[in-house]
């Protein structure tokens, strides 16, 4: 138990950068904005929240300064920050994955070994969960299962060795994703129940180094990024109850680490997954069919590089009437792509622009 409290995953995402080989058919989609840089923050993950006044916030986790940064999602202007280093409610240690459901913001803290839940727009702490199980948590995806009830899926990338760069034995990789049942009463009081962990343990298909996770409730599907290039960096498909389906995106889809992944739902079961290939000098964004996982094209921006997290905001805003894709640029700023630009560049189905 003492060792499990002390273990943290190494910051593998900052150790190596990769130069891309331009794939055939790669499209260039210019960014609509690139925010002012804040290299001291080491930005990681993103989430969006529609405000009551009709604007949209883009919220970023800042790992090195142990806080959250809030941007105007239409302009990239930085609006405010929240939080400081610590273990109390409303404080953070190495915040990583973010998710928004309604007015609830979920913040995964690697070094506090927990997930905090805050109420927007005031960031009032509602509680936390996972302290008894999480060892080195990173990513989060939440799914409503009933009114006032959510399932939260948290990736747990604990590692071994003096430099925390050794993948655990295969049997322990059954703990790579942990699931919690959350309930909120009429007063927004939260309770959490641990539902267990999952992860394939076969040598060829185990989840070795995990961070990003996204889901498709209508398709009973989770896509989980395995970043370990010493084996095969890819996206693997699981059911919502934690069963590996045996499917993944085509081999060698990623030149670097498979990073952020988001679902672009276009209604009636149509849509796409967008996934990050964490490259320098420019990130490549791969687009896959929602159901078959077949490739549908790839694009880069003119600036965006070495991306960790992304957030897809399909609802229209004043600046992005057909929605936007937001990305972290080289740990120091955020960028935005118009989803209409992406759809036209890759000749995607027009239903995604409604």
Automatic annotation (TrEMBL):
The keyword ATP-binding is assigned to this record: no
GO molecular function, a single term: inositol hexakisphosphate 3-phosphatase activity
InterPro entries found in the cross-reference section: 6-blade_b-propeller_TolB-like, B-propeller_Phytase, NHL_repeat
NHL repeat coordinates: 79-121
Keyword ATP-binding appears in the UniProt entry: no
Residue ranges annotated for the BPP domain, each copy included: 19-346
Record keywords: Repeat
Pfam families: NHL
Protein name in UniProt: Phytase
Organism per entry: Lysobacter capsici AZ78
